[in-house]
Amino acid sequence: MNSTPAVWNRKHLLDIESLSAAEIQLVHDTTRAFRSVGERAIKKVPALRGKTVVNLFIEPSTRTRISFELAAMRLTADVINFTAEASSLKKGETLKDTARNLESLNADIFIIRHSASGAPHFLSRFLRGSVVNAGDGAHEHPTQALLDTFTIREKKGHVAGLNVTILGDILYSRVARSNIWALLKLGAHVTLCGPSTLVPRVFEEMGCRVTYDVDEAIASADVINLLRIQHERQRRSMFPGLGEYTSIFGLTKARFALTKPDVLIMHPGPINRGVEISSEIADCERSVVLEQVTNGLAVRMAVLFLVNGGQGPQGIGA
Ligand code: CP
């Protein structure tokens, strides 16, 4: 694994696949500095004063959109929130024209969520400003993986050598892909589990272990990351029904009893209680679901700071 580089040289954050372990660790180190800003009485720093951040969300979001908005405000940026429903996309305008019109208002950073894989990469080819991927189709959700691995590192002290099981709909999940890249780069052992239609063996080529035996997948796990069924991206039914899914793959109280006493339970949200995870496990003391959300704010402050030219934790002003 590389040592942490002194500076960040990327204008965009488009994926985890192209990042090095050292760059991921630099984001984590910068995140830690911004988390301490969030614990102050005055939670703002002027790092993005005079800059304009556009939240371009063409797909629904609760956590990511609000987290990026608050992150930009904490950095003293001006923030424009754009949603597809209230825009001229509804009148047939293309994404390219919409983005170029926003750029004409001198926007500096574009945060985009889109149902099409590659939409952020497309924008990055012609926009002068920075582009940050907030989730593109089933491809990647880089800031989710950065906040997930940051949370693991904070709770366990390290990521390397840990057994991390990702359980659920892997095939249609951008969270899974970004997490797999980040965890493997940081030296974790990644096990994928779920119905065979949603966890094809092709993922073994990335360096993951694939199993369809959920009890075995969770027994040796230091971290279990639950994923919901991504109905919105599935073109046909991938398993007989939700009841059967829960009985075979759901993290129930009985299954939880098989896990290590210090296992971390994670979920990117939104949670479907009673489907992939029982309500009492989602809220139990081993669950770090809400800590993930808290850490997400600091991760997104770090990402906005870095793509705007910040060099790392040492560059954060008072
Ligand atoms: N985890 C996540 O991306 O949640 P949202 O869809 O609410 O942003």
Question: How would you sum up this structure in a few lines?
Answer:
With 318 residues, the protein is an alpha/beta fold.
- The average pLDDT score comes to 93
Helix/sheet category: alpha/beta
Attached small molecules: phosphoric acid mono(formamide)ester
**N-to-C CA distance:** 32 Å
Q: Assign a percent range to the helix content.
A: 25-40%
- Quick one: overall form? globular
The tally of strands reads: 9
Descriptive overview:
The protein has 318 residues and is of the alpha/beta class. Helix content is 35%, strand content 14%. The protein is built from eleven helices and nine strands. The strands form two sheets. Strands 7-6-5-8-9 form a five-stranded parallel sheet. It has a four-stranded parallel sheet with strand order 2-1-3-4. Helix 1 (21-37) packs across helix 5 (142-156), helix 2 (63-74) packs across helix 11 and helix 5 packs across helix 11. It is globular, with a radius of gyration of 19 Å. 45% of the residues are buried. The model has no long low-confidence stretch (mean pLDDT 93). Residues 61-64, 135, 141, 144, 268-270 line the site of phosphoric acid mono(formamide)ester (CP). Phosphoric acid mono(formamide)ester (CP) binds next to helix 2.
